[in-house]
Design goal:
It is built from 4 helices and 10 strands. The chain is an alpha+beta fold. The chain has one domain (about 5-175). The strands form 2 sheets. Strands 3, 4, 5, 6, 7, 8, 9 and 10 form an 8-stranded mixed β-sheet that branches. It has a two-stranded antiparallel ribbon with strand order 1-2.
């Protein structure tokens, strides 16, 4: 898999442009977040989303569905690491269920089992955009408000969400990668010097210019 393009957004150095796009998107729809908040049993979540009464961990992967081998591997790793903590698997687009945009796939724990399902956006608390588990507990994970039927979410809210996803992509597209540190520059210089020595023909004599 091709590595991501390191990107700086709001002073944070993200490992990929996709991660920075999600950070920008969270900002634009009013969801608080922290990047790579902690190490959890050898798994470092890409984000934690900070809700009113609970937090949701987030893993970002460029997958098209839960059947993608990368997604399957990520879900197994997450389930081993988090116990009963709810987690989101987000990707490079906003998945859709019945024409309704979703933030990704949400893992909900119930009676010892884990159910992954799409998490549609909703807005059941004034001024707040959140999401619910499409087949499980209908509670907004951000505002903690009972979400009722997510299919009744105001279409204007959903269109706003779609537009903010586009704007987030445009915002980070031209962000510069992090500047290399002094130690990185020294490392590159050392590697270059070593490469030049290796390229020197056998028996070549090193000459020094008079000082």
């Amino acid at each position: 898999m091709i590595g991501g393009i390191p990107t700086t957004y709001r002073g944070v150095n993200f490992r990929s442009r996709l991660e920075s796009r999600w950070a920008c998107f969270f900002d634009r729809i009013g969801i608080r977040w922290e990047y790579e908040p902690f190490d959890l049993n050898n798994w470092v979540p890409d984000f934690v989303l900070i809700g009113t009464s609970a937090h949701v961990l987030v893993e970002i992967k460029p997958v098209s569905s839960l059947e993608d081998p990368i997604a399957i591997k990520a879900m197994k790793k997450i389930e081993r690491a988090v116990g009963t903590q709810e987690c989101l698997l987000c990707t490079y687009y906003l998945p859709v269920i019945d024409g309704h945009p979703c933030i990704g796939w949400l893992a909900e724990h119930y009676q010892g089992s884990v159910g992954w399902a799409l998490a549609p956006f909703c807005s059941w608390s004034p001024g707040t955009i959140g999401f619910v588990h499409s087949t499980g507990i209908l509670v907004d994970r951000i505002s903690a408000a009972p979400a009722g039927d997510w299919k009744n979410t105001d279409p204007g809210i959903l269109e706003f969400v779609r537009q903010q996803w586009i704007v987030a992509g445009n915002t980070v597209q031209w962000q510069r990668p992090p500047k290399p540190s002094r130690s990185m520059m020294c490392g590159w210089r050392s590697c270059f010097c070593l490469w030049r020595r290796c390229k020197r023909p056998p028996g070549a004599v090193t000459t020094h210019r008079p000082g």
